[in-house]
Amino acid sequence: MIIINFVVSVLLIFLGLYCVCTRKNFIKIVMGLGIVDYGVNLFIVSVGFNDGGTAPIYALSDLTNGAASHFFVDPVPQALTLTSIVIGACVQAMALSFVIMLYKRYQTINADEIRGLHG
Amino acid sequence: MMYAHFPVIAVMGLFLGAFLVEIFGTKNKYIRNTIVMIFVLLAAVLTFALIKPVMVNGEIITYWMGSWEPVEGWAIGIGYEVDALGLFFGLFCAATFVLSAIYSFRYMDSDDHLGHYYTLFLMLCGGVLGLVFTGDLFNMFIMVEIITFASAALAAFRNYKFGALEAGFKYLVIGSVGSSMILFGVALIYLQTHTLNIAQIGNEMAGNLTPVTILALGLLIMGFSVKAFIFPFHTPVVDSYATAPAPISMMFSGTVNKIGVLGLIRVLYQMFRVMDKEAMQMTLVVIGMATMFIAVTCALAQHRLKRLLAYHSISQVGYVIMAIGLATPLGVTGGLFHAMNHTVFKGLLFLCAGAVFYAAGTTNMDKLGGLSKKMPLTCACFIVGAFAISGIPPFNGFASKWMIYLAAYNKGMETGNFLYIAATIVAVVTSVMTLASFIKVTQTVFFGQLKATNDYIRDVPLSMRIPMWIGSALCIFLGVGYNFVNKTILNPAMNAAFSAERYFDVMMGDPAAASAGTNYTINLSVWNPILWLVLFAIVFAAVAIAIITTKKTVGKVMLSGSDNQDPDGKYAVFFSGERSQYSHVVGSDMFWGFRKNFSKYFDVFHKFHNGNVNDYATYCVVGGIIITIIVFIFVR
Question: What is the ipTM of this complex?
Fold first, then answer.
């Protein structure tokens, strides 16, 4: 548990959402989505972190003889973060390919001008 | 215990099929269609084979990936758990896959890059079925992301169509904001409970809510609301419904928004178990009321058939959310039944809209008319679907809507809370407006005068008609045989929603010693003749009062701002009331007067759906913040 990590991750999430909500440029919107993802990833890694912990790799004798050596970093959040990073990269790749196609079609990537569907 | 492998084989088969299509099916269409059909049918058969053990015998099937079974009551691996609730959603989702695939073969025939289309299609199917069967929260998030990708790509698949690309982009942006919030909620829950298994989370958090888990609750409700397309998160989805190919619109309304509903039920009933709190019930009822009413009024102003159907789809999900929010056995039964019925009749309507597009090349209602002469069978199917969605007996929409009205009314009488009575009234009014809107659609698209330019139209081929026939038959069967459906699948599913302890016991502990769970039974009184008499008496009284109190103006419609009268009533039906004499209103603007009188209201929502992705994201974030604040203040 590291307080500064939590504060920064929540800040990143809100920064990203602010970016998605206010920036008109589609590429900046995609960047905002990325920032939200990074904030969430930082949060998940921080959830499992134990200061001074070791990697969770033990021989059987370590587990049976003493209590002090059991202090390890939770590996599950790290696995989740890896998955989440991959997904975040996919989101951005796909969103950017949408932006390329939109630019070819509309000759602009301004959110105010690309709103043919409304009402 | 051979059954235990069925759910995982069904899900894996769909993903395997997605890659096989990409490898072998890009060139030859027969190989491609065969692969798609094999895996979709496999998923459907395996899902339907689970009816006997899960629904009839009342088992809960568990499957641990890689045999990582729980140790001392702690889940280590990823578990699949098929209870009656999940299977109920799985059944109609699997049926939708099959119908949608059959329809796609012919409907998409003239497009190119169909290998990619079916890859995405099977990915979407696999994601939906995986989310329905999984018992692991993070796995749920992965499936949500797969569904978001596949839906966004499929919504933009016909990217030569106007607006398809921007619809896909908007869906992707809002969908990923929702998914990120789900992931944030999952992380918060892991922080508190150190587990990701839904059953175990439910057990750890029962009656033990901390501020951190309350925040997670708000975020998860928001995330799954984005997937269920609830107001105010529905904005980008309207565009996606309208631009996606018809079988994909059917998948959106039939499966994608249903998994949002399932996610909400899992979160509220099984993980947090907060539905016994009155504030939570009222929140859901209010959200449901807002969704159904706002969406249906927006639908009245639409000129494009698929966009109109999209708003109706959102409106009907409002009924489901409201019924789930009632948290009574009858309410939940009605909600689940309506979710299933919505899949059937809305799928049918989207397929009919697709048939119109296939035959006429447009879904703009101003350019259509008189199609019943050219495509009579499609017209018949559309009318069945329109009656079903408007809640006219004996079709299926009536049975479930009646259950929801009764549940809301009973709840209002029991608690004395005016909100539930208001909810009943809003539900009935919404149903009436749905009927009005579908009268307009049927009149403008299928009846009236055939345009001379549309003379070449022929009815659609057989392979596209078969799914529509199956849909129509299901509409009638579910409406007439609601008692049978209730006994076989609805009642177990409803009891599963209330039996979170049993879910935990079977998943973690000794299945033999599992608690029995609830055993509510519903006595359906859909055909209660006294209630019918009362209803008809009220309607006749209202009509009589209207006739007596209004002056006789039949055939003498006044023009605003002039003394001209319409002498013989010839134009009375489609008369605009504009200053210029006898100016016609096109059939698709039949409710011109209604729109004119409430123009301020319609203006607000026309500006609300302004097509700007920033504004849509803002509604999403503001909605999420409001839900979180409500949950924080009232649910603790």
Answer: 0.93
